[in-house]
Design a protein that fits this description.
5-stranded antiparallel β-sheet, alpha+beta, 24% helix
Length: 290
């Protein structure tokens, strides 16, 4: 009986030792797999961060060029190198003729392509509301040595601006009341740029821009004709947070004219396919880990 019990204890001890060896081996294998798995996650995270680092950040809207012209002719224009720009912005201002006939922009083109009227209004044939005035734009002009041409009724002013960092189209737009110097515009997106312009003249032929300035933003141009019949001021302002903003001009003596304003939106770059795959792989690994 003692011999049997001895053999049984030996057998049980041997079995227990074998089990412990298997358990330790499996535990070691498991730990190796965990380390390998964690290393994969780390490498994936590093790769994702590298990819994200290569995604271009949003580029702030910038004005990279500008020009202007005042003409007493019904057709005028200028040569413009728009290479590198993603938007062409043109501000047009003028008045009706001596016989109180119409005043308007009949056509405005860049290398034969029509610009889009944003905040624009033709002149009213009356003695007190006689200006045509507005903001026009064209996406992706990108032409070296192109010609911008205007055909208007009864002379005018043209201010031209080249932008980078803009999205296609335009955001919010507004046309102020005649005889005023201010407008309220509710912008729609962060980091947009608003162009706003005061048209002068009309009633009293008082288009003198002397002593006038923009109440906010940056005054870009101020021009008038020799007889002070009409004038034009153009300013821009970058809006960090969307909301209702007031755009205004002060100084001088405004007896006619009105303010127009147009918002241009910042371009948001799209992530590359590689970036999306990297982020997708990271998300899949993290999901499997859960």
């Amino acid at each position: 009986m003692a011999r049997v019990n001895y053999d049984k204890n030996v057998a049980e001890g041997s079995h227990s030792g074998h089990y412990r060896k298997i358990t330790k081996r499996r535990e070691k294998e498991y730990n190796i797999k965990i380390k390998q798995y964690n290393m994969k996650i780390k490498l994936t995270i590093v790769a994702a961060l590298v990819v994200l680092g290569n995604i271009p950040a949003s580029a702030a809207i910038s004005i990279i060029g500008q020009d202007l012209i005042t003409s007493r002719s019904s057709t005028f224009g200028l040569t413009l190198d728009a290479s590198g720009a993603d938007k062409l912005v043109v501000v047009m201002t003028g008045q009706h003729g001596f016989n109180n006939d119409a005043g308007a922009v009949d056509s405005l083109t860049y290398d034969g392509v029509d610009l889009i009227a944003a905040s624009y209004r033709a002149a009213v044939t009356s003695g007190t509301d006689t200006l045509y005035h507005g903001i026009f734009y064209l996406d992706n002009p990108a032409t070296s040595g192109g010609v911008i041409s205007a055909s208007v009724q009864n002379r005018g002013h043209m201010a031209v601006f080249l932008l980078t960092g803009t999205a296609s189209g335009a955001g919010a737009q507004v046309i102020g009341a005649n005889g005023t110097r201010t407008v309220d515009l509710t912008t729609t997106a962060a980091n947009s740029m608003v162009f706003f312009s005061q048209g002068l003249g009309g009633a009293g032929n008082d288009g003198n821009t002397n002593g006038m300035t923009a109440d906010s933003g940056t005054l870009l141009t101020a021009q008038k004709d020799a007889s002070n019949w009409t004038g034009q001021l153009v300013a821009s302002e970058t809006i960090a947070t969307p909301g209702t903003n007031t755009f205004a001009f002060s100084g001088g003596n405004v007896t006619g004219g009105f303010v127009v304003a147009t918002e241009f939106l910042e371009a948001i770059p799209e992530p590359s396919t590689t970036a999306l795959l990297g982020l997708g792989g990271l998300a899949l690994i993290l999901r499997r880990r859960k």
